[in-house]
C-alpha cells in the first residue's frame, strides 16, 4: 500500500507542487471573510488584500479594539468618506446623533448598544490624510459613527472587499461585462 502511495506522489509531484504554489500565492493576495453581523447583507466576502478602497467600495479593516470585539478583528464596511471629506453631525436629542459626510447622511448613532453598553459618537470635521470614514446601512452597525471605531487609518485597511454569490464574487462588483 505504501508503495502505491509513494509511486502516486512521485508521479504527480510537479502537479502537487504547482497547487501548493498557487495556494500560497492566492493566500498572499486574497482572503475570504465571513460576516457574522447584520451590518451588511452578505455573509461571505472575498478580500483583495493590499488594494486600497475607493469611495463607495466595500473594505475590510482591522478593528483596533474596545467594546465587544477584540483588537485585530476584521470588520467589513463601505467607504463612506475619504481623506479631505467633511464629517458633520446633528444632535437629534435623547443621545441620538445623525452623521453626514459631505452633506450626505451616513447613519444615526445610538446612545447605547443592544447590550446596554453606552456608546460615544464618533469624530467630526475633515477626515485626515490617509484615513477613511467607514459605515454600513444597518442601525446596529459598529462603524465610524462611534468613537470605538472612529476614522480608519490607511495602515489598518486590509483591502477591498466583494460580496460572494454562490462562491464567486458578483460580476457587477468586479466590473465585468
Give the helix/strand layout.
Elements (H helix, E strand, L loop, with lengths): L1 H28 E5 L9 E6 L8 E5 L11 E9 L3 E8 L2 E6 L2 E6 L15 E2 L4 E5 L16 E2 L3 E9 L2 E2 L8
Antiparallel strand pairs: 1-2, 2-11, 3-4, 3-11, 4-9, 5-6, 5-8, 6-7, 9-10, 11-12
Structure description:
The chain is of the alpha+beta class and 177 residues long. It contains one helix and twelve strands; from the N terminus they run αββββββββββββ. Strands 1, 2, 3, 4, 9, 10, 11 and 12 form an eight-stranded antiparallel β-sheet that branches. The longest helix is centred in the N-terminal third of the chain and has 28 residues, at 2-29. It is elongated, with a radius of gyration of 21 Å. The chain starts with a helix and ends in an 8-residue tail after the last strand.
Proportion of beta-strand residues: 35-45%
Order of helices and strands: HEEEEEEEEEEEE
What structural class do you assign from the helix and strand content? alpha+beta
Number of alpha- plus pi-helical segments:
1
Q: What would you report as the Rg, rounded to the nearest angstrom?
A: 21 Å
Portion in helices: 10-25%
Q: Give the N-terminus to C-terminus distance in angstroms.
A: 51 Å
The biggest beta sheet is recorded as: 8 strands, antiparallel
Question: What does the overall shape look like?
Answer: elongated
- Give the integer mean of the pLDDT values: 87
Number of extended strands: 12
- Uncertain ranges: none
Amino acid at each position: 500500500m505504501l508503495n502505491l502511495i509513494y509511486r502516486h506522489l512521485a508521479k504527480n509531484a510537479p502537479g502537487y507542487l504547482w497547487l501548493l504554489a498557487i495556494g500560497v500565492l492566492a493566500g498572499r493576495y486574497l482572503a475570504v471573510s465571513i460576516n457574522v453581523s447584520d451590518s451588511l447583507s452578505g455573509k461571505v466576502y472575498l478580500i483583495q488584500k493590499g488594494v486600497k478602497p475607493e469611495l463607495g467600495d466595500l473594505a475590510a479593516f482591522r478593528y483596533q479594539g474596545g467594546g465587544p470585539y477584540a483588537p485585530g478583528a476584521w470588520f467589513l464596511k463601505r467607504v463612506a468618506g475619504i481623506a479631505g471629506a467633511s464629517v458633520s453631525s446633528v444632535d437629534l436629542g435623547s443621545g441620538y446623533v445623525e452623521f453626514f459626510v459631505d452633506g450626505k447622511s451616513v447613519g444615526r448613532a445610538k446612545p447605547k448598544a443592544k447590550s446596554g453598553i453606552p456608546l460615544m459618537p464618533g469624530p467630526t470635521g475633515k477626515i485626515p490624510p490617509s484615513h477613511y470614514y467607514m459605515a454600513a446601512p444597518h442601525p446596529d452597525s459598529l462603524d465610524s459613527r462611534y468613537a470605538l471605531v472612529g476614522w480608519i487609518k490607511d495602515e489598518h485597511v486590509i483591502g477591498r472587499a466583494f460580496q460572494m454569490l454562490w462562491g464567486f464574487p458578483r460580476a457587477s462588483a468586479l466590473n465585468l461585462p
